[in-house]
Each structure stands twice: as C-alpha cells, then as structure tokens.
Amino acid sequence: MELPKFILGDNTDYPDAIFIIHTEFPRFIINLENDEVEWFEEFDEHDQRELETETENYIKQATEFYDREVARYDD
Prior knowledge:
Elements: E1 6-9, E2 19-22, E3 28-31, E4 36-39, H1 45-74
Antiparallel strand pairs: 1-2, 2-3, 3-4
C-alpha cells in the first residue's frame, strides 16, 4: 500500500488537538495545538544532530499540509 507523506488525524479524547502524521522517514506525529512531536524512530547521536536541524522544516511542512487540507474543505 502506498501512503501519502502526511495524514491528518483527530481523536475525540483530545478535542483541541490536531494531529499530522508523517509517514516517511523519519516518521512522527505532531500535535499542531502545541507543536509537540512524537518520533517513531530510534536515532543515534549523528542522526540526532541532523534531526535537530531538520525538525523546524518538518513542522513547517506539516503546518502547510494542514493549511492546504483545510482550504480544500472550504472549497
């Protein structure tokens, strides 16, 4: 099965949260309510440094995906 790069998710147990799931490496879920990120990968020290520099980019991409999806609902 081919998955999209980002998936929008919600859960009634977290009514204010908006979750974006990133399905490619490095896989993670971000809660756009508070920008909390949960990683599904294990990282070594080298990966950790690279990840720190890329995290801001991943959050930006997730937010842009969310904005695009919401705009499509409005159409």
